[in-house]
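The protein record quoted for completeness.
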Amino acid sequence: MSKPVVTRFAPSPTGFLHIGGARTALFNWLYARGRGGKFLLRIEDTDRERSTPAATEAILKGLTWLGLDWDGDVVSQFERKERHAEVAHEMLARGTAYRCWSTPEEIADWKAAQEAQGISYAVFQSPWRDADPASFPADKPFAIRMKAPREGETVIGDQVQGQVVIKNETLDDMIVLRSDGTPTYMLAVVVDDHDMGVTLVIRGDDHLVNAARQQMVYTAMGWDVPQWAHIPLIHGPDGKKLSKRHGATGLEEYQALGYPAAGMRNYLTRLGWAHGDLEIFTSAEAMEVFDLKGIGKAPARLDFKKLENTCGHHIAMGDDAALLHELQAYLSAAGKAALSQAQADRLQKAMYCVKDRAKTFPELLDKAHFALISRPVQPDEKSAASLDTVSRSILTSLTPQLQNASWTKEALETILNQAASDNGIGFGKLAAPLRAALAGRSATPSVFDMMLVIGQDETIARLSEAAA
């Protein structure tokens, strides 16, 4: 019987949640959720100088916005330092690690001597590895080093990269416990993954070299090695490492720019992963088909046009009430004023005619401008030009007809088309002043949709003001 799947995301709280980290979390989440497994969250906060509570909060907030839920409590790596030290001492007892009293100066001198002989990439070989215990200094602090294999090869069976072979002569006797008693990252990550029951480690391929060194810890402790899946990094549109010059790199920036979370999940899932011609999908659909075989080996390129297109599909597909709720959260994240209750009610009523072509929440708000403004409507320069004497006269004549109309699209179409015919103009000529009166703009949803959304009284009031 196979073990239940357990994946994890383990960011360092030294800054914002990078979009690459968000995609790594998403891949872990999808893989676990699609197999009825667990997705765990660990904060690797052992770097006390750079780790901040604010960064931790930003990571949790970003994951929550993206819709990634985790199982159990968030684990702090720093709080487990005693457990890490305990394992280092157990390795000593097993003979798979040793005490080392070499000072930084002695290590530097050793490397300088190697370089003098033309050996520039030699790994440090401690004189304490096989030293006689009788020679051990008394009462001097020591580091604990792994006993790395000196010959042969270490093979990493990676689910994305394939078989990766590392020559053991390139692996040093890495320190697992410093002389001040603090554990190193290489030890802590293995102990935590083992204790948390992690069965699959999905992470960036910049950690691939670490896997060989971490595998040594598993072997030294007689623990099962998890499956590895090292995924390529995300590059900018120009193929270079993603940076600020390409645009937003932090996940929270994407929320503040107005991208919907469902669209972000869809886009990030497809960023470096494929399943046939599947492009637009829900998270539930992604969980059913997401696998490691679909992950490519080449770096993925961020494509903002594709991101916007994907997000546009999800806004169009979205539930109106859920979109309104997320849009309010976007306004808060972007530092903008919240919608009033009246505006929110009107926007929800307008969703059906504004969400189809909006790719982001700012675009959605722009298309819904007519529903969010209050009187008096201020026409922009282009639409104001359509409010000439003749069109104002037509608007005046429309008012009594609209007061007695049944407020349906069919009834409104009949009245407005008749008004255009009576005045010897096409409907397009009548629509321009109507748009100016109702929205103050020349590009809007259909005149009929705007009238239905804002209602009979508001429509008549706006037309009357424009005619005056």
Q: What stands out?
A: The chain has a mean pLDDT of 93.
